[in-house]
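Exercise 7. Given the components listed, write out the predicted structure of the assembled complex. Treat all entries as one system.
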Amino acid sequence: MKKRELEQLASKTEEHEFYTPIPDGYKKGKTKFVIVTGTVMSGLGKGIFSSSLSKLLENQGLKCMPIKMEGYLNIDSGTLNPYRHGEVFVLDDGTECDMDLGTYERMMDKNLNRQCFVTNGQIFSKIFERERKGEYLGRDVQFIPHVTGEIKRHLRELAMSSGADVVLVEVGGTIGDIENSHYVEALRELSYEEGRGNVCFAALTYVLEPGFLGEQKSKAAQLGIRLLMEKGIHPDIIACRAENPVTEKVKEKISIYTNVPVERVFSMHDVESIYLIPKMMREEKLEIEVMKLLGLDSKAKEDKAGNYAWDDFTQKVLKKKKNKATVGIAGKYTGLRDSYASIIKALEHCGAYLDTDIDIKWIETTKIENGGKPALSELKSIDALIVPGGFGKRGTEGKIECVRYARENGIPYLGLCLGFQIALIEFARNVCGLKNANSTEMNKETPYPVVDILPGQKNIDQLGGSMRLGGRDIDAKKDSQVYKLYGSKTTIHERFRHRYECNPKYIKKFEENGIIFSGRAPGENIMQILELKDHPFFMASQFHPEFTSRPLSPNPLFVGLVEAAIKLRK
Ligand code: GLN
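Answer.
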């Protein structure tokens, strides 16, 4: 913006109290908003609720775009420890975000983008940037209207760029948290500005059922909703999480205390699998109520085939399966399953697809390291091994031992990102005879740096958002195993998140000793997939195939692994 324009803008903001930046060309009411908030406690499954609702609305022919609003000050999830926060999910455009976005992508079978994930860090950096540019000249920058204005701007921009019929906003945390209070305020303002029938609030709450009483109690839920109402937000829909189906009596009580008609108080009780939730909501006609509230019910056009395919998948997940396979996952965050959420999901997708009960055996590699080889007895019971992504030295020697075991004993192996690099190190040491070969990430002084930092990464000194990130094309070698697995394709597309790579100096050495690099970066000397010929299944990818696995289309590398595991078991 030119200086004069800025001054004009600044003088405008001084004239009145309103600061509602509306993007050029924005049409009120074109996109509707569904706001999902949580009360009583965290961990209610807002993400699952919101993604299931998005799925159901899409099944009714509406285009939906979900967004997650995080309360933390980090710009993204890239630098968060998976042990504390769960896995870092990577979108195709390279955004490193909360694992909830993985839930959305899988549930909706749709790629999301950068705009679908916002943190306080992003909101405040934008505001500081504007302040320095002079965009608020003359004004003190305040939570209201400036911070809330920035949040509304983001939502409207998402509405415009996505062309969605409905934007579903999931507010992280619980009502009453300081971290999300300005989001809640912004959403209250948004509903006022967008007008009646354009915004719908869905509140998740929890109905307690203490064992010593043996009955459901609604007081905590009532108080939680009241807190929301104190913030000026009246919910249109209440979804009650509970252990058992919420009784009519409790629904009525909640209705009386909140002025939400009882037909809009829904039970979202525990079910065997999260995949059943969309069906449960559909049977209660939750999405139809939302459409009525938003004046979209005349558009309802149920995709029966879509629902059928989903229900069929759900049945396959739940039923007793024909085959069995035990897959070992060797990592260092095995204490917290959320650290490997997408891998667990990818295996679940394969289980349904291949009619196989997959049992995951967690192998804590830091233990193997300390206990030495005897701990390898843990590996005896597995039919396949995965070494997942990871950073840093701790646990790597244990992982190398695991891969050695799999390679030497014909156990199907799939290496994911770090698992690709570990396979290279193991092969270099034990097949190519390069003693003490390593990655420079683990040992800068190694005599054989078979894995080294990418040239483009050498001069980067900031850790956040700086890896080789996001979806990229990969050239797949014709007639290789990967080519066959991906349905005879010579170009595949997968998501990356790494700083290190196979050192190009050693490519020849590896190939001479039997490694086939069956996937390469187009036009670059970066190795992306390796496989071994004389092994039932030994594959590793520099990318993360787990991020693109979807319930109805499991990722081919996982399918290959599980197929090989079933064969071995037989
Ligand atoms: N630490 C390795 C790298 O940076 C592997 C990263 C990963 O597994 N995501 O290349």
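Discussion: The two ends are 68 Å apart (CA to CA). The chain has 19 helices and 21 strands.
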